[in-house]
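Build the 3D complex.
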Amino acid sequence: MKKISVSFFILIFTLGLFIGGSWAGSSSSPSGNEATATANQCPVKFDKHCDELGKKLPLWTILPFVGILLSIAIFPLVAPHFWHHHYPKVAAFWALIFALPFIYFYNSDAIHNILHIYMVDYIPFIIMLWALFTIAGGIVLTGNLQGRPIVNTILLLVGTVMASWVGTTGASMIMIRPVLRANASRRRKTHVICFFIFLVANIGGSLTPLGDPPLFLGFLHGVPFFWTFKLLPEMLFASSLLLIIFFLVDSFYYQQETHKENGKTNAEKSPIGLKGWHNFFFLAGVVGAILLSGILKWGAITIFGISIPKQNLFRDFMMILMGVLSLLTTQKNLRETNEFSWEPIKEVAYLFAGIFMTIIPALSILNAGSEGTFAFLVNAVNEPYHYYWISGGLSSFLDNAPTYLIFFKSALGKLQIPESLVRQILLCGGSDSISKEFISFLKAISIGSVFMGANTYIGNAPNFMVKSIAEEAGVAMPSFFGYIFKYSIPILIPLFIVVTFVFF
Amino acid sequence: MEKVFYELVIEGHVPVIKGFIFGLLEGSKRTGTVIVSRENNIKTETLGEVFMEWTHLHESLCHVVIEEDFLNVIKNGLEKTFHVLKLKLKEVRKIKKASFHFQYEVYAKKYGEEIKNIFKELPSQLKTSPDYQPKEESDTECTDIGSLASCHGYTLKAHGSVEGPIDVLLFFYKKIQEFELIKENSIALHFEN
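Done.
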């Protein structure tokens, strides 16, 4: 009951926005969705842009943001039980420590910024994650395959492809149990789960805004839905190399296994099947709603002084509807098979409520570009590969979604591009030097944030989920540093260096 | 009565040494325990010895554990065939006992029970160290696996060491090697004097 109430909290809150919107009075603005209104006007005309609030805010205002990210990074490792029971309080502590003085000193400016980030970023972000998670939780891959190298490689490939369409968390949830079942009788299977984290929980999600939370944040800030397909060469390159390495490593361990155990690895085989497949229709509904929100131009309504395009409200409503329909139409036992629970999404909802509050000063300062107190950072990061490594490096240890947003804003601030022009620039495909530079920066940020979320357990939300599920299934997962030293540094870092030379 | 074991350190190529020992025992119709240390994860060379071997500063050393009954046969055999095989017996040490350190961390009751049973059924000649105190915890509020604030509803953790006669210990060592969740260090030999 308690679990269901969490999902309904999100539902009711969003419906409240609809009602609130109509109460606040509809004010259709032709520039409601500024991004789409100016699309297809190439070359793009730039007006110098600078965030006024960002020029005023001192650097120490980002401390609560650093605090909450470090809490997410450190507490699960040093005090997992404390963290599990008290993370909402910790998130609230960091949020309030920023919000109260911010409101006191900046009054209406502060309230406007807070409402803006929650209504434009946080709520759609959580709704999208909730919908994908709910729908994916109703899809069950049944059957028991034998965990041979070729079978494991195919399972990872399927998960990698799926990740861009059901999200990395959803794909991890669908695929992790079939992978564990297939390898149940193998003694050495830790590497299978680590490669699963690389591919299914991270790199696979780089093709669409549905795939990985950073890319959806990009979408919410004007990146067209299909633009992320431009990351296909990088994604294909990295995932192909990883799959080849995986096949070789798994073959090596499998050979040792069969010699040692005299065929004990022959798990009972049963044919593979898909249950709850009707959820793919709801998934298509989510994709359709997101796509439509980028095409439709219905004007905007003002809610608490924040202009929100009507098509975005429609998108969020549709995503909730798809999630609810999935809940109503999927047999309970399918979710039980997936050991579906609201816990992962509840944790993301609480912690990101804190992250989005505390990220406000960092985004404003970065948006101010060389006139803000982050000028040193903005000026130091000049080349695409700088963005790739700095956004990737930070995504490895901090959550990759806020990291993406920070460097997205940093690139805009550096080039003094208003966010309203992002869509137009990306649709024009770089018809001038500033656009070209921004596109190359954005590619680097996207690749860095998504790919390098795999470097540690804390880089991306599904990493820890996969680790925990595998541990409870009897896999000896490496420690936090064990994962970095045995898997990330020898496998991922050389791969990312190669990606740098090939693509940047 | 417990068997007595010796460690022989023989200079020469490992396949030749193995061939020599097993050929000798086969030819003399003897059966018993011969353990090649390297193949059974028994700690042998020091870091210095490994370095010397890498740099070819000396021939490779093969550590073999044998029963007392074979000691004289092998010693004599090595002496008699030295001019042909060039295998040199560098050291003979009587083994007092053997031990290995292990640790485990388990997050499901099913596997926790399995591992607890393994140590409950420890052969009588073996004993665990006093610091082996399995710590079992249940957190009834950690029922679901999360993403950013995950915790386990069940945890069983322990570390310690097992010691006893090398033959029995090696048999137990191989048994727990089948359990991925138990992380075991290599076997250390303890010598008399």
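Strands of chain B lie at 5-11, 34-36, 61-67, 88-106, 127-128, 135-138, 154-164, 182-184, 188-191.
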